[in-house]
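[job 0412] stage=fold_complex status=start
inputs:
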Amino acid sequence: MLYHAVLGGLVYGLYFTLVGLGLNLMFGVMRIVNLAHGDVIMLGAYAAWALFTAWAVHPLLAALAILLAFTAIGIPVYYLIVPRLLRARDAEMLSLILFFGLQQIIEAAATIAFGTTERSIPGRVLGHHPVRILGQVLPAAWVWAGAVSAVCVAALYLYLYHSPPGMLTRAVMSNREEAKASGIDVDRVCSLAFGIALALAGIAGVFAPFMLGSVTPAIGPDLNIAAFAVIVIGTLGNPIGTVLGGIIYGVSLMLMQTFLSAWANLLPNLLLIAVLLVRPSGLLGRRVRRA
Amino acid sequence: MSPEPPPLLEVRDLVKRFGGFRALDGLSLDLRAGEVLGLVGPNGSGKTTCINTIGGLQRPDGGVVTYDGRRIPGLRPHRLSRLGINRTYQSPRPFASLTVRENVLVAATEGCGSTPPDLDTLLASLGLAGQAARPAGELNSAEQKTLDLARALATAPRLLLVDELAAGLNPTELLRMAERLRALADRGMAILVVEHLMGFIERVTDRVIVMNAGRAIFGGRLAEAVRDGDVKRVFLGGAHGG
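[job 0412] stage=fold_complex status=done
writing structure:
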C-alpha cells in the first residue's frame, strides 16, 4: 500500500508540477502573481470538455489545440495589461489585486456560460485498461496526465536553456533593467512567456476532469492554492524547481489519502505553512531563485 | 604631412546638471580612431558623468556630442551600442544566472549593429575560455570586470568607454588589461578611459584630459600634466605657486 501510494504520488505529482509550472514561469519572468491561474486551468478544462462533447475531440488533440490557442490569446492579453501594470510603483502587490478581479470575472462568466453542473470526460477516452507500472496498477488517465506533464516540463526546459528566445527570457529573469539596457525587446520576451504560462495552465486543465473526477467553474481557487503550494515548496521564480515541489506535493497527498484520508484536503495549506515557516525561500533556496 | 582624419567623437561644451550642481560644466574633447584618451581628476570632477552622458545613460543638459559625423543626443545605450559605442561599468552587472558565454552571446545578438566578432576567440583572447560554461554570478570580481569588457567587445564597438576597469585588479591583471586595451586601439578602436591609477593611465593612454569641477583644466600628455600648475593645485590642494 505504501509503495502504491508513493508511485501514484509520483505520477500525481508530475501532474501537479504542470498545475504550478505556468504560475511559476509568469512570476519568474514578470514578477507578477497570477491569482487567476487556477481559473485559466478551469477554462482549459471546459475547453477540453466542450471539444469532447461537441465533436468527440480526443483530449490529447484538445491539449495541442489549447497550447496554440492559449499562447495566441495570451500574447495580446499581455500587451493589454502587463506593461501598464509593471510601470506601477508596486507591481507585485497590484498584480494580486488585478488578477484577483480577473479571477472573479472569469469564474462568474464561466458560471453563466456553463452553469454549476459538474462536468466530466469519461476516463475510457484515454484508455480502457489501467496501466501496470513497476508492478502497480494506475488509471490510464493518470499515466497520460503524468506523461504529458513530463513532456511539458522537458519542453519548457529546452525552451529556456537551449533556445535563443529562452536565453533572452532567462536574461530578463536575471535582471530586467540590464536586459532592457542591452537592447533586449523585453515586452516581446515577456509576452511569449505570458502566452506559454497560460498555455501550460490550459493543458493542465485538459487533464483536470480526469485527475479531479469532474470540474465546475468554481475549481479555480482550489487549484490555485495547490499551484501555490507546489511552487513555494519548489522555490518561487524557478520554473524547473517546480518539479521538486510537484512531486513532494503529489507524494504527500497520496500518503495522506491512503493513511489519513479525512485530512487530505488540508494538505496544500499545511505544506504551504510548513515551508513558509521552515524555509521561506523554498527548498532549493536562494542559490537558484533567479535561475 | 597628410591631413588628419576628423575625430570619431567630438564633444563640445557638454553640460550636465544634477539639481543645482553642474557635474559637467562645458566639457569639450576630441577622440580619433586608434587613440586612447584618459580622463583623470579628483573624485566628483565629472569623469563618470562624462562617460554616462556620452554613453546614453544620462541626458545632457547642454552641448553637442558628435559621433562619426552624426549628432547623438539622448539616444538610449542599446541604440548607441548598435551604432558602435559601448562601455564597461565601474561595477559590472552581468546576467548572474546566465553562463559567461551566454552573457556575451546576448550582447552580440542584441547590441551589435555590424558583424559580431567570433565569441570563442574573444573569450579566449580575454582569458575567459575556461570560464565560458560557468554562471557569471560565480566569477570573482576581476573575472566579472573582464566579462564586462567581453560583453562590450562582443558588440564590435568602434568607440569604447572604459569606466574604472582597473580598480580591484592585481598588478599582473592590470598589466594584462593595459596590453589588451592598447592592442584594441592599435587595431583602430577609439577608447576613452576613466581611471584613478596613474600607472595604468600612463601605460594605456596617448594623452589625458585632467578634469576639475566639470571642466577640462589640462589636455596633453600625462608627463606634462604632472608639471602643470593648475593640475598640481587641483590634486595637491592649496597654493603651490606656478
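[job 0412] summary: The mean pLDDT of chain B is 89.
[job 0412] exit 0
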